[in-house]
Amino acid sequence: MSECSLDSVDLSPAELLRYERQLLLFGAEGQKKLKKTSVLVAGVGGLGSFEALYLTALGVGKLVLVDGDTVEETNLNRQVLHWTDDIGRPKPISAAEKLRRLNPNVEIVPVTERITEDNVDYLVRQVDIVIDGLDNWETRFLLDEAAYRAGKPYIHAGIYGFEGQVVVVVPGETPCLRCLLPSSLKSPSKIPAAGPIVALVGSIAVTEFMKLVTGVGEVNKGKMIVVDAYTMDMMKIELRPRKDCKCS
Ligand SMILES: [Zn+2]
Fold first, then answer.
1. Model confidence over 151-171: pLDDT tens digits?
2. Domain count of the chain?
3. 189 within some domain
4. How far is the CA of 94 from the centre of ligand 1 (A)?
5. Average pLDDT value over all residues in the chain
6. Runs of H (alpha helix) within 59-194
7. DSSP state for residue 90 in the 8-state scheme
8. For residue 4, what pLDDT band results from cuts at 50, 70 and 90?
9. Measured in angstroms, how far is the CA atom of residue 215 from the centroid of ligand 1?
């Protein structure tokens, strides 16, 4: 979402055809904004697979896929970009292969590293927006801080069993993730997770992304979207900045 003009962005006849149905939602201008946008997908597991899939289908300009793990059999119930033949392969490589086949217009950059204190700022600098496909709070807080420092939006998504939540963090406009949650929060090593619920929450995150970038639709800034798939209730919780937080 760089500030420079959209005049330098062209949509080919093939792109206009591919995106025909979504152009009815946000027009060629919205599509050009998507094409100009680069996104870091942090983690290419359950949430990250769905996020990367829909970001690629939407037609963003560049996706940087970061994950240090390899595909395991226990991933296959929900991490839809990884298939049986991919067991043992690095997740970003496995994902990149399918995403390029889905939409060759999108530049896919696989990074087979864990996100750490040492590389997080470098990674965030490569992109316009960060989207969370992680399964642990430690890395989320690292990303949240790095994105805040860089002044870039960070879309948090998380699931636990039937429940999930999405928060859009925009530096200077909304509270950050640390305003909401204690940074000592730890994640269990095995989170209960089924594909459809991961898809639901990942899809909400990419929908917020799409609205944020195209400017069409209401982005839920300063709110936490909470989904309970057990009952299929959805609610929004108003967020307040914490006074002693680094972001305020
Ligand atoms: Zn904060």
1. 999 999 999 999 999 999 999
2. 1
3. yes
4. 35
5. 95
6. 91-102, 120-125, 137-150, 177-180
7. B
8. low
9. 24
Q: What would the two tokens of residue 65 be?
A: 């896929």
Q: Is residue 83 part of a domain?
A: yes
Question: What is the rounded distance in angstroms from the CA atom of residue 169 to the CA atom of residue 166?
Answer: 10
CB-CB neighbours of 162 under 10 Å: 16
Across the beta sheet with 129-132, the strand order is 107-111, 62-66, 38-42, 129-132, 154-160, 163-169, 223-228, 233-238
User: 3-state DSSP call for residue 152?
Assistant: coil
How much distance in Å is there from the Cα of 224 to the middle of ligand 1? 14
Report pTM. Answer: 0.96
Distance CA 28, CA 24 (A): 9
Structural domain range at position 164: 25-238
Ligand 1 centroid–CA 213 distance in Å is: 23
Are the C-beta atoms of 109 and 41 separated by less than 8 Å? no
Q: Taking ligand 1, which is a single-atom ion, which protein residues have CB atoms under 5 Å away?
A: 176, 178-179, 245, 247
Domain of residue 90, CATH code: 3.40.50.720
| Separation in Å, CA 223 to CA 9, 152, 163, 187, 226 | 33, 18, 16, 22, 9
- Euclidean distance between CA atoms 31 and 208, whole angstroms: 15
Q: Does the residue 146 lie in any domain? A: yes
Ligand 1 centroid, distance to 205 Cα (angstroms): 20
Q: How far is CA 156 from CA 118, 196, 206, 215, in A?
A: 21, 18, 10, 19
Phi and psi torsions of 176, nearest 5°: -95, 180
| Residue 180 located in a structural domain | yes
CA dihedral sign of residues 76, 82, 85, 86: negative
Cα dihedral sign for 25, 26, 28, 30? Answer: negative
